[in-house]
Structures are given as structure tokens and as C-alpha cells.
Specification:
The protein is α/β, with parallel strands linked by helices. It contains 22 helices and 20 strands. The strands form three sheets. The protein has an eight-stranded mixed barrel with strand order 12-13-15-16-17-18-19-20, surrounded by four helices. β17, α18 and β18 form a beta-alpha-beta unit. The mean pLDDT is 87.
């Protein structure tokens, strides 16, 4: 048996060199540094093989990921893949306990043992294997094999290799973290497909390629038909499964080199390149591809088990070169898709009429930015009352004082603001103005107890810094937060429900109250409602419109009121326009209301005038 004792100073020089290489290595360099380290260690210890195994996340299998072999020794890396953990016998249990596996002579093992069965075909005579552990988690194993003789392993050798194993383990963890960060940055967590950021990069590269080759490329904007209905009826876990299956179906059809990504919700984007150099032929190629995509989704057995009919609405835009910005191309494909959506599933191409719409959208985006910069937005206030007609507060409603078109309501611009992301700036502006106004009211005797409701968009509420922004606005305005009411819609509950609850609880702790707007038109899950820190349910105006004439509407409204009472929530009806509607609501037990019967949304000065007159009429 041999037991080499290399000089201590050369050993420490080797460890220092390897350690330095690992410290400086980026995630992209780690594999190369590991291979270099294995070669240096193998030669230093006069081993025949030096290698690294990585365990799967569930620890059920392990695979040889890196290997160095001495001259004349057969590599084993390709044969040692996806080995079950049981193949390592008792050694696996030693590694999970953080202990090395030391074997000086293979013949000391029972020939029917798992360890002997693993080593003998490889010709291994002696070995030393050390676990790679991070806290309680086993990442892998690092080892040395002796094939052409037997070897004793000294305590010094084992200790030295454990130092190196620690370096390897740290490098693997850093590599995993960087890969995870890259995955989060460029890939959709639900489907594993490219996300918007990665798709934008791929489109830029495709534009450059198209310029060089003069071949057309195309973007296809894809929407899953009736996905919201499925989500509402079967829940978002099933919805996520549908998204994965659709993504897999789309990916299976695409030619090599094309890219599919998920933008948001049920919307996918496909980039197909190297189409014909002739526009008409390229259109036909895209048409054929769209038909293949539709067929792949319709014929996916796993999808049809979830729901019988699965169709897509697809919008397409062709491009040649880089004359247009990537965002413009996506917008064109999106607009084409919405043209399809209006008439049913199928395919539509961006055309001249849609170009005109796109130009209008670009103008609207410019004008909205100007409106934000020039303070053209202002708040109107619609009174909210409690029986017998006392004004308890108001809902703040946004108006745009356009320089040429006059006062514009939100229906003129709010949907585009949501799509373009400008809703974040507009939403912050509204919240600041509302808190400033509420602070003024709180300093006046006649208005000090007024509540003010502010609508919060889903995109705004989902921002990671939304809570911090609200706190900053509260502190800056000096407002008593207990008079501020944030109105959320039921659609917000479908995605990331746990995060929504956590954020609401943080804001509720500050004194802010929450109203669920348009109740009864969306998700309406009693289980979820019980977990939300709500203060108020708002009955959607759609139920109030036909309340007097329609017994079904009365039944729905009665149920909402009873639900609110059961949960200890205030219930407010919006859209009250007639005395008959008010009387019906009072008979059903709803005592909070707002609507044109009392007042339209009013500018600040007119609202305060209404307040004085109304309360004078009540004898206040």
C-alpha cells in the first residue's frame, strides 16, 4: 500500500491557489475552475480519478458532473448519470451526516453490498469521498479514486481535502444563486418560458438578423380564449396548469430557433424568424404556423381533460429590419389580437386601420405624460351617505382637464394607462392629491370626520414598494389614516392572494380601511373574503340598475347584504339614481349608498357647497 506524504508547503500553496480561483470565479467560470481544481488535486494526491457528483433537489438521484482522469485511466462520467441514492449504500447516510467515506481496499467490502457493486465495474481499489453540504442540505460529493493500487488515507490528507470541498461547495451555492437570479430575471416562473425582458432582447437580435438577411420575421401575440372564466370557476392553481400546458403545446410546434414567451396573465408572445424574403409568402408561413398552434392546443389531451374546448386568439405583425421599436411591434401584434378577440378565436394581421389606432395610442401616451408633468389631473368627489342621508365622506374620482378637449372622464384614458404602465404615475398622483385634500378637511370643523375613498389599480397595488409609498404619502400629508379608504377590485384576488392579504394587513395596521369595489362581478370567494381585512363591500351599480324591476337582482343584492352582515362588514350600494332604488335598498337592509340621485361627482368647491346645503337641509 502507498501513503504519499507531499510537502506541507506545496499542499498549502495548492489550497491557496484553488481557493483564490474559486473566490474570483463568476457563475459562468465555476465549472472551468472546478475542472482545473480536480486536475490539480488528482495529480497532487497521485489519484487515478478525481470527480464531483451532484444530487437532485429531492436527493433521490446523483450524477457525475465533473471528472479528471490520469493518463491511461478510463473516464466514467457518461456512465454515472442519474444513479439512485440507494446505489451508494451506507455511504449516502454518512454523507447526509456530514461524514467522509474512506475505503483503503475494495476487498474489505461484502461482494453483495451496494458499494462493491458500484465500484467493481469501475476497477476501483481505494477511494476517499467527502460530502458537499450547505447547513443541513446535501448538495453533492467530491472524491478521489485509486485504480492501479491500494492507498491509505491519512488524517492530514482528509483534512486538506475537506478544506477544498468547502471551497467547491461555496462555489456551487454561489452558482445556484446566480442561476436562480438569472432565471427570475429572464424566465417566467409559472411556465418556464422566456419573460418580457428576454423576449425584448430576442426581438432586437431578430431585427438585426432580418436587416442582414432581408428575410421577414414576425411577432404573434396569443391570448387564451375564456381563460378568466376558467380561472374564476376552477381556481388559479388549475389556471397555472393550463398556462404550462399551453406553453408546452406552443413550444412543441415552433421551428428550431424560434422563441415563445409569456408576457402576463394568459398572454403569450411568439417570435418566428427567417421567413420568406417575399411579404406574401411570409404572411402565408405565419398563417400556417398559427393554424398549427391552434391545432396543438386543441388536441392536447391534458388540456381537454381540464376543459373540452381550448382555442387561441392570435394577432400577428411582420417586420423586416429594425425600423420600428420592439415595444411598437408588440403593440401592433397586441392590437391585431384584440381585433380577433372581438369576433372570436382566429388570426388577424396588423393593418392600416390598426396603424391609425397605434398612432392614436402613441399620441395618447405623449399627452398623458404631458398631463402628469403639467398637473392636468384633478379630483372630483362623489358623496357617500348613510341613512337618513348624512354624508359620511366621498369617493375620489379622477378627471383630466385636457388643454383642447376639456374635462375627460377616466373611460377616455384609464384602460390605456393600465396597459402602458402610466397608471403607476397617475395612481401615485391621485393618492397624493387625495391625502392632501383629506388632511385639509381634517383641519376644518365641518369636514373633520369625512372619509375619502380612493380606487387602487391592480398594477399599482402589486408594486413591491406600494406599502412604502403609502407610508411616505401619509407622513408627508400628515393625514389621519383612519379616514382613508382604499378601494380594491375582486380581480386582484385571483393572482398572488397571499401577498395581497399580507400587504392589506400591513396597511390596515396603519389605520387604513379597505373596500371591495364592484362586489359580485368577479371572484367572490367566501373563503377568501373571510381572510381579507376588509371594512366595506360595495354593491356594483349593475345590480342596482334593475333592482326595482328584477326579482333576481333583488335576490343577489339581498344575499350580498346578508353576507356583509355575517362578515361584520359595512355594505354600500353605488349607482343609486332613483328614489325607488333607494327605497328598495333600505327595505333590503342596505343603509350606505352613493349615486346621481344625491349628487354627481363634483369638483372640490362644488362638493363643499353641496355638503353645506345638504346638511343645512337635514338641520345640521
Amino acid at each position: 500500500m502507498t501513503e504519499p506524504h507531499p510537502p506541507a508547503d506545496s499542499f498549502f500553496n495548492m489550497v491557496a491557489t484553488i481557493s483564490g480561483a474559486f473566490v474570483q470565479a463568476t457563475a459562468a467560470d465555476v465549472d472551468e475552475v472546478i475542472n482545473s481544481a480536480l486536475a490539480a488535486i488528482g495529480r497532487f494526491y497521485q489519484a487515478d480519478r478525481c470527480y464531483l457528483f451532484k444530487f437532485s433537489a429531492d436527493l433521490t438521484t446523483a450524477s457525475n458532473s465533473h471528472e479528471w482522469c490520469a493518463p491511461g485511466v478510463s473516464p466514467q462520467l457518461e456512465q454515472l448519470q442519474q444513479l439512485p441514492s440507494a446505489a451508494f449504500g451506507d455511504w449516502y447516510r454518512q454523507w447526509t451526516a456530514g461524514l467522509p467515506s474512506i475505503l483503503c481496499d475494495i476487498n474489505s467490502l461484502p461482494h453483495d453490498s451496494a458499494e462493491y457493486q458500484l465500484l467493481a465495474p469501475q476497477g476501483i481499489q481505494s477511494l476517499l469521498m467527502l460530502p458537499l453540504k450547505s447547513r443541513d442540505r446535501l448538495l453533492g460529493m467530491f472524491g478521489l479514486d485509486i485504480v492501479r493500487g491500494l492507498q491509505q488515507w491519512s488524517a492530514e490528507q482528509i483534512a486538506g481535502l475537506q478544506l477544498i470541498a468547502g471551497n467547491i461547495c461555496s462555489a456551487l451555492i454561489r452558482q445556484q444563486i446566480e442561476h436562480q437570479a438569472e432565471s427570475l430575471a429572464f424566465y417566467d416562473p409559472v411556465t418556464g418560458l422566456a419573460n418580457r425582458q428576454l423576449m425584448l432582447d430576442r426581438i432586437l437580435q431578430a431585427q438585426l438578423q432580418s436587416s442582414r438577411s432581408q428575410h421577414y420575421a414576425a411577432l404573434l401575440f396569443i391570448d387564451i380564449d375564456d381563460f378568466k372564466t376558467l380561472n374564476d370557476s376552477l381556481g388559479y392553481n388549475t389556471g397555472d396548469r393550463v398556462l404550462k400546458l399551453v406553453g408546452q403545446s406552443l413550444q412543441a410546434v415552433l421551428p428550431s430557433g424560434d422563441t415563445v414567451g409569456r408576457l402576463n396573465a394568459d398572454e403569450f408572445l411568439i417570435l418566428t424568424e427567417m421567413l420568406s424574403t417575399q411579404r406574401a409568402a411570409a404572411v402565408q408561413e405565419v398563417t400556417d404556423l398559427a393554424a398549427a398552434l391552434q391545432a396543438a392546443v386543441a388536441q392536447n389531451v391534458a388540456l381537454t381533460q381540464l376543459r373540452p374546448k381550448n382555442t387561441l386568439s392570435i394577432g400577428a405583425t411582420l417586420f423586416l429590419g429594425d425600423q420600428l421599436d420592439t415595444d411598437v411591434l408588440i403593440t401592433q401584434a397586441d392590437m391585431a389580437m384584440h381585433q380577433v378577440k372581438a369576433v372570436g378565436n382566429g388570426l388577424a394581421f396588423f393593418d392600416a386601420e390598426m396603424q391609425l389606432q397605434a398612432s392614436r395610442r402613441l399620441l395618447l401616451a405623449h399627452e398623458l405624460r404631458e398631463a402628469i408633468s403639467n398637473d392636468q389631473f384633478e379630483l372630483y368627489f362623489q358623496p357617500q351617505l348613510v341613512h337618513p342621508g348624512v354624508v359620511t365622506g366621498a369617493e375620489a374620482l379622477l378627471r383630466w382637464r385636457h388643454p383642447t378637449r376639456g374635462i375627460l372622464g377616466p373611460y377616455e384614458f384609464i384602460d390605456f394607462a393600465e396597459e402602458s404602465g402610466l397608471i403607476l404615475l397617475i395612481g401615485e398622483l391621485v393618492l397624493r392629491k387625495a391625502c392632501q385634500q383629506l388632511a385639509l378637511w381634517q383641519r376644518q370643523a365641518g369636514t373633520s370626520r369625512l372619509e375619502l375613498s380612493v380606487n387602487i389599480s391592480a398594477r399599482q397595488f402589486q408594486q413591491p414598494d406600494f406599502t412604502a409609498l403609502v407610508i411616505e404619502i401619509l407622513q408627508q400629508s400628515g393625514v389621519d389614516a383612519t379616514s382613508l379608504k382604499l378601494e380594491l377590485t375582486e380581480s386582484m384576488l385571483v393572482d398572488n392572494f397571499e401577498q395581497v392579504v399580507a400587504k392589506m394587513q400591513q396597511l390596515r395596521a396603519l389605520g387604513i380601511r379597505f373596500a371591495l369595489d364592484d362586489f359580485g362581478t368577479g371572484y367572490s370567494s367566501l373563503v377568501y373574503l373571510k381572510r381579507l381585512p376588509l371594512y366595506q363591500l360595495k354593491i356594483d351599480r349593475g345590480f342596482v340598475d334593475e333592482l326595482v324591476q328584477d326579482d333576481n337582482q333583488q335576490a343577489i343584492v339581498r344575499t350580498i347584504i346578508m353576507l356583509g352582515q355575517t362578515l361584520g362588514l359595512e355594505v354600500l350600494a353605488e349607482g343609486v339614481e332613483t328614489e325607488a332604488q333607494l327605497k328598495s335598498l333600505l327595505q333590503l337592509g342596505c343603509y350606505h349608498y352613493q349615486g346621481y340621485y344625491f349628487a354627481r361627482p363634483l369638483p372640490h368647491s362644488e362638493f363643499e357647497h353641496f355638503l353645506r346645503q345638504h346638511h343645512a337641509g337635514l338641520g345640521y
